[in-house]
Amino acid sequence: MSQYHDLADESMDHLLESLEEIVENAEGAEDWEVDYHSGVLTLKLGEHGTYVINKQPPNMQIWLSSPTSGPKRYDYSSDADGGWFYTRDNKTLKGLLDEELQAILGKPVDVRV
Questions:
Q1: Which helix (H) or strand (E) element contains residue 50?
Q2: Which residue in 8, 10, 61, 91 has the fewest CB atoms around it within 10 Å?
Q3: Handedness of CA 14, 32, 21, 69 (dihedral sign)
């Protein structure tokens, strides 16, 4: 369990830094906001909706709620790009965020997880 917490905390910290940088550099993002409290990371993108990413220690997962693709539960694998993957489609948390945020921003995004 301590390995899960170490991996999940590191990933959440990387996500926070990455998303803060994206929001700071995004054009027309005056009402966008990144917030992280008690293991819950919230990315508010104005008219594009809100992402919620949080740790789920009982399941040793990271959960994502996306305004675009809905809820997903990510398991860790050292083989996955960024480590966290969704077992139903084998896509990674990083891949999904890169893809969806690129569609919103209209330019390439490289989220660090």
A1: strand 50-56
A2: 10
A3: positive
